[in-house]
C-alpha cells in the first residue's frame, strides 16, 4: 500500500515470500522498484516489526525515512510484557510477588478486558495448580534421590 501526502492510498505490490529473510526482502524490494519507477519519490516507509525489513529498506530507499508502525510497536511491546508477567507469575515462589505481577498484568491489559477475563476464567481459576509457593520440589520429598 502506498499513501500520498494527503492520505490517499493505493495498492502498489503484493509479494508472497517464504520467510522474511534479508535475501527474500531484497528480492521483494527489487521487484517493487522494477514495477514502480516512481519509487524515488517515496519519503517515508512504515514497517510492522521486523528489523531486517528496516535494514533492507534503508539500503534500497536511502532517502526515505523509516518508522515502525505505532500500532504494531505498542502491540508487540504489550504482548512481550504480558508473556513476561505470566512467566513470572508461574515461576514465583512468593504469593505477594504473584499478586504484584497479576496487578501489573491487569494494568497492562486495561484496554483489553477480554484478555483479563480469559485470564481470570482459564488461569486464575486453577491458580492452586500453577503457583509454586506452596509446592515442594519433588527431589525434596525423598530422603534419597531417585536414581534411574
From TrEMBL:
Domain ZSWIM1/3 RNaseH-like as annotated: residue spans: 1-65
Signal peptide: none
A matching Pfam family: ZSWIM1-3_RNaseH-like
Alphabetized InterPro entries for the sequence: Zinc_finger_SWIM, ZSWIM1-3_RNaseH-like
Superkingdom in the source lineage: Eukaryota
Protein's UniProt name: ZSWIM1/3 RNaseH-like domain-containing protein
Amino acid at each position: 500500500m502506498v499513501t500520498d501526502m494527503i492520505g490517499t492510498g493505493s495498492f502498489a505490490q503484493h509479494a508472497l515470500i517464504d520467510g522474511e529473510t534479508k535475501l527474500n526482502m531484497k528480492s521483494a524490494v527489487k521487484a517493487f522498484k522494477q514495477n514502480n519507477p516512481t519509487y524515488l519519490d517515496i519519503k517515508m516507509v512504515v514497517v510492522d516489526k521486523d528489523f531486517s525489513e528496516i535494514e533492507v529498506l534503508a539500503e534500497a530507499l536511502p532517502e526515505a525515512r523509516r518508522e515502525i508502525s505505532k500500532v504494531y510497536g505498542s502491540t508487540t511491546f504489550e504482548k512481550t510484557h504480558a508473556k513476561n508477567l505470566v512467566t513470572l507469575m508461574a515461576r514465583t515462589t512468593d504469593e505477594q510477588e504473584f499478586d504484584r505481577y497479576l496487578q501489573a498484568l491487569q494494568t497492562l491489559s486495561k484496554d483489553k478486558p477480554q484478555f483479563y477475563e480469559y485470564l481470570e476464567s482459564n488461569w486464575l481459576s486453577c491458580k492452586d495448580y500453577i503457583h509454586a509457593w506452596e509446592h515442594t520440589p519433588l527431589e525434596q520429598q525423598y530422603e534419597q534421590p531417585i536414581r534411574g
